[in-house]
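Hi team,

Filling in the usual template for the complex we talked about on Friday. All components are listed, including any nucleic acid strands or ligand strings, so the model treats them as one assembly.

SUBMITTER: L.P.
PURPOSE: interface mapping
COMPONENTS: two
RESIDUES: 684
SEQUENCES:
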Amino acid sequence: MKLVTIQDLAQIVKKHGFENFMSDLVSYLKNDFVRWNEFDKSPRYAAHVPGGVLELMPTADKQYFTYKYVNGHPGNPLEGKQTIVATGQMSEVKYGFPILLSEMTALTGFRTAATTMIATEYMARKDSSTLALIGTGAQSEFQALAHRMVRPIKTIRYFDIDPLAMDKFERNLGDKGFNLVRCTSAEEACNGADIITVCTACKKHAVVIENSWVKPGVHINGLGGDCPGKTELDKAILFRGKVIVEYTEQSMVEGDIQQITPEEVKQVLHAELWELISGSKVGREEDSEVTIYDSVGFAIEDFSALRLTHDLAHKYGIGHDIDMIPPINDPKNLISVLDLHK
Amino acid sequence: MKLVTIQDLAQIVKKHGFENFMSDLVSYLKNDFVRWNEFDKSPRYAAHVPGGVLELMPTADKQYFTYKYVNGHPGNPLEGKQTIVATGQMSEVKYGFPILLSEMTALTGFRTAATTMIATEYMARKDSSTLALIGTGAQSEFQALAHRMVRPIKTIRYFDIDPLAMDKFERNLGDKGFNLVRCTSAEEACNGADIITVCTACKKHAVVIENSWVKPGVHINGLGGDCPGKTELDKAILFRGKVIVEYTEQSMVEGDIQQITPEEVKQVLHAELWELISGSKVGREEDSEVTIYDSVGFAIEDFSALRLTHDLAHKYGIGHDIDMIPPINDPKNLISVLDLHK
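RESULT (copied from the run log):
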């Protein structure tokens, strides 16, 4: 089987090109999401621990089974460590053998941005040119670059409670042709924005975005309300317009819609993302609508990311072959790998 | 983080010694099982597919989170492939970062045998000298060698529907000092046995062992009744004596006790394995009792196996260091691993 480390993935992305990687990932995601009913779906497994959460996100279609391991520890950066680290594996369903083991920390950045890109494509106004980005952590540059691939984003208005995170954001994107407007509050960042994308890590019921800041016509990507007890949007925002989610069952537990009752969810929920891709539901219809993508991250997104990584690792011959499957001719002679006779 | 491949594990076992590895694993298992209430426990995640099953088995204590990926495809050997292949990962709970990625196919062989060894230690008659082994597949040699570490096993009476699997068993254990008695049926193998250990892979409700073959005083290790619709024991055997399981909630779905009602389970279930280790329940009390260990395999067993592998990999300096955690000083600067400026 193939092992793809961080350096391997960086090589793959360099060889393929960042934007090509992102747009191919969007294609893989769309191909997988429209086959929604072919997938084995379940809410993620989560072990909640004092400092955070440890999760497994499995899914399968008829050909592949994938899962991602990912943690979420909001206090990690205080000790110089990343909030999330992820790894994942892909197996063939037919025999059950693993074929790819991959880093998924960077891949999670990619797939979250690529999925947001799809939501933005269907939900944001076509002429959206100003993006408000609240939270300039690990995910922010992926988001900034992805948004520009589907909307004519000229200006990014950004805010983070950590000034160093804003400095870093500027260093990374200073030469990418954006008009970067550093703000002193989330409210200031939202002022005049066509799209508001929120991605913070604080594990509590926060009101990062207040209802009064959201003007008619705005599209919101709410990315950081993604586990029980962790929300970002003023609850009133959810009643402002069409809400879409990835997978209702999981989102009611983990998303910003955990703040409202099941009856209220029925009232505000417009579609699952795959229904926009398949065309069975439409996204934005009026320029004055408010639209909300309440994202939590779903296993099929990791499935698509692993599928693309697998294909590109083979295409470019990048990655390491590792012996994780016993190299034995007789499948019942497992103990022979231990050379007991020697 | 550390990667332990099949060859790495084989080296570790060679360096440490097969019996030392097995007995240390028994110690780790006992240390973990007695802390039963400290673990985050849940039944495994299983995706049932036409040819088999794909599973994730997570668990955690306050220090480590582990999971195993394992498939079970009974038809694989017909195509020269192993029935099960497994991999696993261990992370530190404090920060959520993975520290070990390991092969677990051979480790599953070890931990299943080591757990059976514990059940046998508490449940089998002290003077047990004849072992009946039904199924001489990948697990059989691990079992044979493990049983001898806790009981004075002289004779092994064995049967498999595949004669080649019996040939292989003889080649592997011919020089290990056992009196090997090849049988032409499971019934013949059980004749005169003190312990009956059954480990077959057929995914259906089979009656591999009939009630009338089980004489007073016998201990049964039922290892292959381990998923819904897959059982091995004549249901009547479950009413013959003390039944023990690893984790009742999971075993009622996956074990041989899936054949009986919850009320009947209450009636026959004597203890969970950890209660024998902690001393809160006793195992065998009379030489004439029939005792039954209905095993399905539980996540804590993989936890112990990964913990031991981690400790020995570091002790002997075996395994590969791989970059699966982004090597960045600023935890929020994830995108820097992609070198977008170059």
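MY TAKE: The two ends of chain B are 27 Å apart (CA to CA). The domain at 124-294 of chain B is CATH 3.40.50.720 (Rossmann fold).

Thanks, L.
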